[in-house]
Design a protein that fits this description.
By secondary structure, the protein is mainly α. It has six helices and four strands; from the N terminus they run E-E-H-E-H-E-H-H-H-H. The longest helix is centred in the C-terminal third of the chain and has 18 residues.
């Protein structure tokens, strides 16, 4: 999981196995962000994060969760279309994920050890950050 700013520069990350749900990893990823990155006001997420519990916990921290609702949602919608206009900016997040995919060692996980994979991941994030400054 990667948290990026409005320009697509990585701010924080969390590397785990593929088995836990992303909703459960969201808050721990935000907690792992460095303090110098500044406070988050909005968080643009995809449809897989649509969870009322997560939405309420982020709201208590002062973070607005911008996420389209899942299809077939039983409960009433919690946000209107005005907030979802910002969802169009999600392409910046997808672009950063594509930049990370330019490194072959990250696309196909050759390393068995998480620490080695983490080193290559952080090196790729560093190069992406340096490219934009």
């Amino acid at each position: 999981m990667v948290v990026v700013d409005g320009q697509g520069i990585p701010l924080g990350s969390q590397l785990t196995s593929a088995s836990p749900a992303e909703v459960k990893l969201c808050e721990s990823t935000l907690a792992a962000m460095p303090l110098g990155s500044g406070p988050l006001r909005r968080l643009i997420l995809d449809r897989g994060y649509d969870c009322d519990g997560l939405r309420q916990r982020l709201q208590a921290q002062g973070i607005q969760m911008i996420c389209p609702h899942r299809r077939g949602r039983v409960r009433a919608p919690t946000q209107d279309g005005r907030a979802l206009r910002r969802y169009r900016r999600r392409w910046k997040i997808e672009r950063t994920i594509a930049w990370l995919g330019n490194w072959r060692r990250l696309t196909v996980r050759y390393e068995r050890l998480l620490i080695v994979y983490s080193a290559f991941f952080h090196l790729a994030c560093l190069l992406i950050t340096l490219r934009h400054f």
